Amino acid sequence: MRILKTLGGAAAILGLVAAGAAYTLVAAGAAQAEEIKIGVTPGPHAQILEQVKPIAAAKGLDIDIIEFSDYVVPNQALAAGDIQANSFQHQPYLDNQNADRGYGLVSIAKTVVFPLGIYSKKIKSLAELKDGDSVAIPNDPTNGGRALLLLQAQGVLKLREGAGLKATPLDIAENPRNLRIIELDAAQLPRSLDDTAASAVNTNYAVEAGLDPVKDPIAREAAESPYANVIAVRKVDADAAWAKTLVEAYHDQKIKDWINEQYKGALVVAW
Fold it and tell me: Which residues, in sequence order, are CB contacts of 105 under 8 Å at separation 6+?
């Protein structure tokens, strides 16, 4: 009986030690886990982050995805500290926002390129544009310039020399068909197709509107576009451990394979 009691006592002690060790591990895991909020626009940006979430979670980073309906608020929210990162914009747009608003946001990784497309319900090619037709472009400086550069590459109009990535309708030097260039909020451009001869639509909004960004555009940017999208954070967080984990999770081979399979060329992986 004494031996049994001793063994029983030892087992009890071992059980307590094991339980304590298990609690310590759980507590340590809980202490290491971080939660961050990432701002995205609806569509592919949000869909890709949903795929990143479980990979990040396995690395101890919980992601809360916050959707914004436009291109302005995600940077405002990030600068204010309401979210810790965002994934919705290309580098020229981020540069422009920093210059205009003094945000001091930085990119920590490239994500994907969304080739800009020109869509129409009325014509099959830009060669069919008639005198005085209306063409809608995004109303933000970088995407508007991007659309104008695409129209120039297609021979529709000519910009003044040196207009660059921030070209505006005021930079149009030659407009042989007297096209009316209408600037609209990027999210509204798919709906403008009922009223315009053609509209330049960002891929994420095209997908959200049910357009096929590979088959439907009557003109499309080349894959080597300089407009790679990025993950942005506040400068103070650029070297944070969670930021490194986020990039590792996003750049996982599984994410690259999923993007290629899911979007079939509509999006181009930029890393």
Answer: 75, 78, 79, 94, 97, 98, 232, 233, 234, 235
